[in-house]
Amino acid sequence: MSKIADNISKINIEIEPYEARLIAVSKTKPGDAIQEAYDHGHRDFGENKVQEMTEKHEQLPSDIRWHMIGHLQRNKVKYIAPYVYLIHSIDSERLLKAVDKEAVKSDRIINCLLQVHIAEEESKFGFDEKELKQLLDNNILKETPNVRVVGLMGMATNTENEAQIIREFTGLKMLFDELQEAYQLDNFNLKYLSMGMSGDYQIALDCGSNMVRIGSTIFGERNYV
User: Fold this and answer.
1) How many whole angstroms separate alpha carbon 141 and alpha carbon 67?
2) Would you say residue 94 lies in a domain?
3) From 62's CA, which of 54, 55, 81, 198 has a CA 20 to 30 Å away?
4) How far apart are CA 73 and CA 98, in angstroms?
5) What's the rounded Cα separation, in Å, for the pair 34 and 60?
6) Which of 92, 85, 93 shows the shortest CA–CA distance to 69?
7) Which residues pair with 47 in a beta bridge?
8) pLDDT digit string, tens, across residues 64-77
9) What domain range includes position 10?
10) pLDDT tens per residue across span 85-116
């Protein structure tokens, strides 16, 4: 078994009791590394740049489920709308409407997660709790029938303070449960809580995550140019 396949197997064993789904974050990694994971049976891969994801989509097997996990610009949505499996990073009403517009053109319903800003870092994107509830209370989703909101995504503060990470993840799980209970909309059905990366996924799982985004633990450290 290859190193990549071995890493995926170990993580799948760890997350199985939580019934969580593993997104292998393949950003900056070459196609042959993704192919190794694919040959081991893995199908869900996460990218954070539209151009890179599109190039890999064109080169690699067609049944790969591509997840856009990075900040998404409205003018780039058209490039991924025909094939993207799940967009994790819907962080504004304007982006939601842009995705709906391109989904109509592609004759698709695109599954999305609403990104919630839970970290004490200005560099992170996402709705705050008030903005999220306003979006739902104002029936904006009725204006975007080709978008299906299937969950929430959040990134904790990059810190060694485990108590803070737990607080942020727990807060997002509480919000997830509250929204799931309070809002019954045709295209709003919360199933996935995407939180946890290589450095904090075990904490995230313990806090209620059922979708983790793991890159370096699978593929090794990234080489940024």
Assistant:
1) 21
2) yes
3) 198
4) 9
5) 8
6) 85
7) 68
8) 999 999 999 999 99
9) 3-218
10) 999 999 999 999 999 999 999 999 999 999 99
Supply the CATH number for residue 158's domain. 3.20.20.10
Structural domain total, the chain: 1
130 within a domain of the structure (yes/no): yes
Residue at 122: amino acid letter: E
Q: What tens digit of pLDDT does each residue of 122-149 get?
A: 766 899 999 999 999 999 999 999 999 9
**Token match 């209970």: residue?**
181
188-194 and 147-154 beta bridge pairing:
parallel
Task: Look at residue 36 and tell me if it is in a domain.
Answer: yes
Q: What is the pLDDT of residue 225?
A: 47
Q: Tokens 């319903």: give the residue.
A: 109
Q: What digits encode the pLDDT tens for the residues 146-177?
A: 999 999 999 999 999 999 999 999 999 999 99
Whole-number Å distance between alpha carbons of 213 and 225:
22
